Amino acid sequence: MNMPVRRRTGSLLERALPSLQWGEPIAAEFDDLYERMSHLLETVGGMPALSERTHWAPLADLHETDDAYVVEAELPGMKRDGIDVEITDRDLRISGEYKECQREGVLRRSTRRTGRFEYRSTLPVDVKTEDIKANLTDGVLTVTLPKAARAATSRHIDVTT
C-alpha cells in the first residue's frame, strides 16, 4: 500500500545528526520511512504522530460487542470537564490536558505524565452518533459507540459522572 509523503525542509538525518553528511538518496529514503512509520502509528495504533512529541496517548482498550464498540481509557485524576470526546465519520478522538500540581518545596523526582494527551482510533464501521455515551468513573473513561447501518455525522459527546 502506498502512503502519502509529507516533505519538510532538511532531511530527518540532517536535523538529527547535522555533522554527518548523508547523500540525498539515502536521507530521502530515511525521511520517507520516518513519515510512513509516523502515519502508521497515528492511524492504526491510535497514537499521535512521531513528530508530535508534546502529545502522549493514555492507556486504553478497545473491544467490540455484537452491537457496539467500547473504549476504556485510563485517565486518573482527570475531571469530566477536562476531557474532550469527539467522533467524526468513523474516527474517535479523546483529548485533554493533565495540569501539573502546585506543591511546596523542591520536586526531587516525578514520573507522572503532564501536558496534552490524545487517543485516536478509527472504527471499522459507522456508529450511531446520537447514541454514544461517555462515562468517567474511578479514573476510567468508558465510551460506548453503538454500531449503525448508516453514515455517521460529526458530534461532540458530553462526559458524565
Named CATH architecture of the largest domain: Sandwich
The overall pLDDT average reads 79
Shape from CA axes? flat
- Regarding CATH, which class of the largest domain? Mainly Beta
What is the percentage of strand-forming residues? 25-35%
- Fraction of residues in helix: 10-25%
Kindly state the number of beta strands: 9
Low-pLDDT residue spans: 50-54
Q: State the order of secondary-structure elements, H for helix, E for strand.
A: HHEEEEEEEEE
Which structural class do the helices and strands define?
Answer: alpha+beta
How far apart, in Å, are the first and last alpha carbons?
43 Å
Number of helices: 2
Query: In angstroms, what is the radius of gyration?
Result: 19 Å
Q: What is the chains' assembly state? A: single chain
Largest sheet: 5 strands, mixed
Explained architecture:
It contains two helices and nine strands. It is of the alpha+beta class. It has two domains: 12-43; 60-101 and 112-160, Immunoglobulin-like. Strands 1-2-7-6-9 form a five-stranded mixed sheet, with no helix packed on it. Strands 5-4-3-8 form a four-stranded antiparallel sheet, with no helix packed on it. The longest helix has 20 residues, at 24-43. The chain is flat. Mean pLDDT is 79; it is low at 50-54.
Q: Which secondary structure elements does this structure contain, and how are they paired or packed?
A:
Elements: H1 12-16, H2 24-43, E1 60-64, E2 68-74, E3 83-88, E4 91-98, E5 115-122, E6 133-137, E7 140-146, E8 155-157, E9 159-160
Parallel strand pairs: 6-9
Antiparallel strand pairs: 1-2, 2-7, 3-4, 3-8, 4-5, 6-7
